[in-house]
């Protein structure tokens, strides 16, 4: 059993902790919190040992009747591997602490690739992380782009990808984020997403743009991929059907001459995830609209939706397996993780 610590128990940290607990080859030995806020509830209910981020924070936890098992360094010492889920650009500062303790670490997509050196996606480059000490699981958007582009690239070859990310402005719990009445473009082109995909699919020629919109539940990608030969839409759908962690959905149902709204947008997709009784109503899979896939000559057009809070969660589990050399075959790890998480 690999002993896993979670540093930073927010949107991603709590989900990775739950996912680790569902595996039979790894377990949670503790989580780090900076403050005894409401988000500790899940950790206490799950009996995860709680560690304060620093010594000075311990009295604050004690005042609230929460016993702590130590501070971050104590957890790092007892863990084989720490999944660092602290806010983006902060986590990398913890590298020296992990190095000093000889503990492996995984960071999330808010960190840059360079200081960590290896970026991870279960489908595209699992083997690069086998036995590695420090790995970064790429962001939710990059994970989504990689999952759907990789099988297309393998079948047809890709000359160029142009994609626009329509990004949620904050997670549902982030009442301090915005905009709430505006659409904000990322004025730097390419946005960071394209170069980020190249950290897990090298040689992919891709440029991205992004806008932030007032919604909290999902991102949507509009993708145009120019392939090396003319794609057949049915074959493309078949490829995605056979790719793990992609769900093909229908925006509209056709009934004789009428079109019935089925899953036309992100609101209905998340309702389906809740109806499916997925944990927290999460959707680890990338949702691709079947009826939104089109081709003109060598160009393939499609839309996909990303549940930003959860698509990277199974990737973190696979990354742990690769780094700790529990499994060398990516598809076996993917299947094992999917089974444990109830991903169809
Ligand atoms: P979050 O703000 O929900 O959670 C971060 C947690 O870390 C909070 O509980 C915060 O209190 C805690 N924290 C802050 N400083 C700390 C410290 N010094 N030590 C320990 N804990 C500390 O953030 P998140 O959305 O979970 O993001 C975490 C990482 O995952 C980031 O790199 C982010 O870019 C990435 N990510 C986020 C999403 C998403 O949509 N939320 C998706 C994919 C990747």
Please explain how this structure is put together.
- The protein has 344 residues and is α/β, with parallel strands linked by helices.
- The chain contains twelve helices and 17 strands.
- The strands form three sheets. Strands 8, 9, 10, 11, 12, 15, 16 and 17 form an eight-stranded mixed β-sheet that branches. It has a seven-stranded parallel β-sheet with strand order 3-2-1-4-5-7-6, with helices on both faces.
- α2 links the parallel β2 and β3.
- The longest helix has 17 residues.
- It is globular, with a radius of gyration of 20 Å.
- The two termini are 25 Å apart.
- The model has no long low-confidence stretch (mean pLDDT 97).
- The site of nicotinamide-adenine-dinucleotide has 26 residues, from α1.
Name its key features:
eight-stranded mixed sheet, seven-stranded parallel sheet, 31% helix, alpha/beta, 17 strands, binds nicotinamide-adenine-dinucleotide, 344 residues
């Amino acid at each position: 059993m690999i002993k896993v610590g979670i540093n930073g128990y927010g949107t991603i940290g709590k989900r990775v902790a739950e996912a680790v607990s569902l595996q039979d080859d790894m377990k949670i030995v503790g989580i780090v919190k900076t403050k005894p806020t409401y988000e500790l509830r899940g950790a206490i209910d799950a009996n995860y040992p709680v560690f304060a981020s620093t010594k000075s924070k311990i009295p604050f936890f004690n005042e609230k009747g929460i016993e702590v098992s130590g501070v971050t360094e104590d957890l790092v010492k007892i863990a084989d591997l720490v999944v660092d889920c602290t806010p983006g650009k902060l986590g990398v500062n913890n590298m020296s602490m992990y190095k000093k303790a000889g503990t492996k670490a995984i960071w999330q997509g808010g960190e840059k690739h360079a200081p960590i050196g290896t970026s991870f996606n279960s489908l595209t480059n699992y083997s690069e992380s086998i036995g590695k000490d420090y790995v970064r699981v790429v962001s939710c958007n990059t994970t989504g782009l990689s999952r759907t582009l990789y099988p297309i690239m393998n079948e047809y070859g890709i000359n160029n990808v142009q994609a626009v990310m329509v990004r949620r402005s904050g997670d549902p719990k982030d009442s301090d984020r915005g905009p709430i009445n505006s659409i904000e473009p990322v004025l730097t082109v390419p946005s960071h997403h394209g170069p980020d995909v190249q950290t897990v699919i090298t040689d992919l020629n891709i440029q991205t743009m992004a806008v932030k919109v007032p919604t909290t539940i999902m991102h949507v990608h509009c993708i145009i991929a120019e392939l090396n030969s003319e794609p057949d839409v049915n074959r493309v759908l078949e490829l995605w059907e056979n790719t793990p962690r992609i769900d093909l959905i229908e925006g509209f149902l056709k009934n004789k001459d009428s079109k019935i709204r089925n899953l036309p947008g992100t609101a209905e997709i998340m309702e389906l995830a809740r109806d499916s009784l997925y944990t927290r109503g999460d959707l680890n899979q990338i949702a691709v609209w079947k009826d939104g896939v089109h081709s003109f000559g060598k160009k393939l057009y499609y839309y996909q939706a990303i549940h930003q809070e959860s698509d990277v969660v199974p990737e973190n589990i696979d990354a742990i397996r690769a780094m700790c050399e529990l499994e060398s075959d990516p598809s076996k790890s993917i299947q094992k993780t999917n089974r444990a998480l109830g991903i169809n």
